[in-house]
Amino acid sequence: MKKLSTTLKLSVLEAMAFNAFFVATQTFIIISIALYFNASPFQISIISSFPVFAQMFQVFTPLIYKLFGTRKKSLIIVSIIGRGSLVLLPIIVLLNIRNSHIFVMIMILYAFFGTFISNIWTAAMRELVPFEDRGKYFGMRNVFASAIGILATYLYSQFLDFPNEKMGILLVTSIMALFAVITIILLAFHKIPEICETSQNELKIKKAFQDKKFQTFLVFVGIWTFAIELTRPYFSYFQVAILHINTTFLGKMSVITGIISLVLYPFYGKLSDRYGNKSILMIGISLATIAPLLYFVMTDYNYRSLLLLDSVFSAFAWAAINLTFFNLLLETISEPAENYVAAYALTSGVTAIIASNIGGFFGNILKDKTFYILGDKYHGIQLLIFAGFLLRIYALLHLTNVEAYEKPIRYKSWLLSNPSLFKRREISLPIYLKIFRGKKLKKK
């Protein structure tokens, strides 16, 4: 990989600051914050999936360019509005405002403008990072981001375990707000390449949908997004609201996942450059199907060992998915990139809002239900999670149809490379046949 430019170095720092507050919008941390504001399962489902749903508004990115003039200026302004909205969280906690509607509106504002940040940033990175270096660069970038994420997750879990609930939530939201502001400052120093006026003001999304190669990718994206968004918040909801698992323990499990991911990111980065993003993504999704099964059989008595297994498998699964999914998107799109990113965002957004509404509807119904299968007790939320398992497998099957660079991964070892082992089998086989025939003759 060539020497990094100043912007790409700053992008690594921005990723670290971003992950420091982003981890608090995920898993048990955001569920704990949401429950503090008395949010219902349906509201939790909406705020969990809205970042994906909001991606569909990326089709209006040209209007953002037209309104603010340049790509760089557009990026900064939407960052100030979107990420800056998180500053409101510690303020309403300090004022003792525990209104779920206000909390949901803040998170929606953050997600809505975050989608424009994503679109502009993705298009810029495609131009700044050469194709042959993307796996290594983003692998390295994710290592540093994950390291900060590990530390932040551990700190958040400790704060959430404070006897004084308000103080714990205040500390978590204050740190979120601080790092959100830091990312805005770092983005201000990025040198973002500009685009020509024609592509700046026109977004021909129809062209992207007519691209046969990209169509196949979008079908996979739709199924995968539906599978994830249907059950996204309910893994953590099951942990916190139903099993009442200590947040310190959950934080330790997240640290284990983060440390393993830290090692895997550069490893997967090299593998994706060698074997292709699609091959590594298939491995990741295959491993991601394990988590729903673990949660389906999880109880008050075995959750510790199963969460440990989940933390390990999730690290192997999501390190591969987080790294290669973005790269596979870049690999399947053509110029102008904004058209394809917007088409991808529209597909993800529509699917996400449908999935989150369905998930929220069933979540409200099943939250207090229990079922018995062959005498074994299951919580209603576990049935919803099991549906997610089936959908993840269905998405994996569709990924095989996506056209992308892939090199078969073959296992090489002494066992398979030693021809004498197979020679012995060839020599021994007739002996077994003779013995078998001999027994038959004796019977006759």
UniProtKB/TrEMBL annotation:
InterPro entries membership: MFS (IPR011701), MFS_dom (IPR020846), MFS_trans_sf (IPR036259), Sugar_transport-like (IPR052528)
Membrane-spanning ranges: 12-36, 75-95, 101-125, 137-156, 168-189, 214-235, 241-268, 280-299, 311-330, 342-366, 378-397
CDD domains: MFS
UniProt entry keywords in alphabetical sequence: Membrane, Transmembrane, Transmembrane helix
Keyword Transmembrane helix included in the entry's annotation: yes
A Pfam short name: MFS_1
Family matches, as PROSITE patterns: MFS
Record keyword Ligase present: no
Stretches assigned to the Major facilitator superfamily (MFS) profile domain: 1-406
A single GO molecular function term of this UniProt record: transmembrane transporter activity
Name of the protein in its database record: Major Facilitator Superfamily transporter
Source organism (scientific name): Marinitoga piezophila (strain DSM 14283 / JCM 11233 / KA3)
